[in-house]
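Hey, does this match?
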Amino acid sequence: MIIAIAGLKGGIGKTLVSVHLAGEALARGSRVLLADADPQRSALTWADVAAEAGQPSPTVIGVPASLHKQIPPLAAAHDVTIIDCPPRGDAMTRAAMMVADVVVLPTGPAPTDFWALSGSVAVVQEAQALRPDLRAVLVLNRLQPRQNLSASARAALEGFGLPVLASSLGMRTAYAESLACGMSVTAHSPGSSAALEVRALYSEILATIAGEGASHAA
């Protein structure tokens, strides 16, 4: 199973989503590969912090431009592979979509975040034209506490034509605090609201891959 966390806009939390999903997959007993395709190599840095702290972590690797050739044989030796795609990395993002089972596009809740989705969705649609079985979903990230999308914002997000997952991630300090300790939030703060969000998101992504569909309600 290969999950690509993608989006051409920077600052939408792709690495945060990638690392915490990888940590949850590991907690569920899966053999997990986290492929860091972002030039900043933040996931690799997190793995170094985890190693120094003696914390269990998934296998984390940096991947070159030949991602579409390198990932499939590595993924075959793991239960779950998560690709942290780069911002503005059209070629790398396209390569990830050529090998992924599902593409997850995180987005913030602001209109400017929605406006920036167009390019990412266009890349997904190009990939789906070549791979009709490729699934793609939108996930809301960095919601403020008790923040609800207005009806107009929800309609704008659904207007992109991709399923919007019911699960979302909030703007919570627990996410950053756990990364600083070399841990995922489900390991660092298992009873926190952030951990519950990650578990729900991962479960919904698994359901999407299994063909059980994704909600169109944000």
Observations:
- The chain has a mean pLDDT of 90.
- Residues 2-209 form a domain with the Rossmann fold fold (CATH 3.40.50.300).
- The CA atoms of residues 105 and 138 lie 5 Å apart.
- DSSP finds ten helices and seven strands in the chain.
